[in-house]
Design brief:
mainly alpha, 135 residues, 53% helix
Length: 135
């Protein structure tokens, strides 16, 4: 069973990395989802792989077999967070797709214009007086 789970984690990770490295936005989102599934399965596997075992320690049982409940709680939390982040990413990419007309990720470097003044994030009022001269 450990071989099967380890193989599933490896396949999910490999497919996720492959999809992230493609130059399409929706494939990258799918790749991130597959990577989060791989991490969830890995976290779930850290709590012992046993069948028919409760996540509660029973001190009256003859042969106490239990699983750790902490990885199960972590996986449930990670599923909720990854679902919410995937929804946010899909909305961002949908907006970018509607504005640009395609879902390609452009990796071309743009040469910065050295002569242009840097005004990003600054509201410039060229007709305003300096602070000392205002009254």
């Amino acid at each position: 069973m450990e071989i099967l789970v380890a193989s599933a984690i490896g396949i999910l990770t490999a497919c996720g990395v492959y999809l992230i490295l493609r130059l399409r936005v929706f494939a990258a989102i799918l790749g991130l989802s597959l990577l989060s599934y791989a991490v969830n399965v890995f976290l779930f596997a850290t709590g012992r792989l046993s069948t028919d075992a409760a996540p509660i320690l029973d001190k009256y049982a003859e042969n106490p077999v239990y699983t750790d409940p902490l990885p199960q709680a972590l996986v449930l939390t990670a599923i909720v967070i990854s679902f919410g982040m995937t929804a946010v990413l899909v909305m961002f990419t949908l907006g970018a797709y509607l504005e640009a007309g395609n879902d390609r990720i452009d990796m071309d470097e743009v040469e910065p214009d050295v002569d242009a003044p840097i005004t990003e994030g600054i509201a410039l009022d060229m007709d305003a007086e300096p602070m000392e001269e205002r009254k």
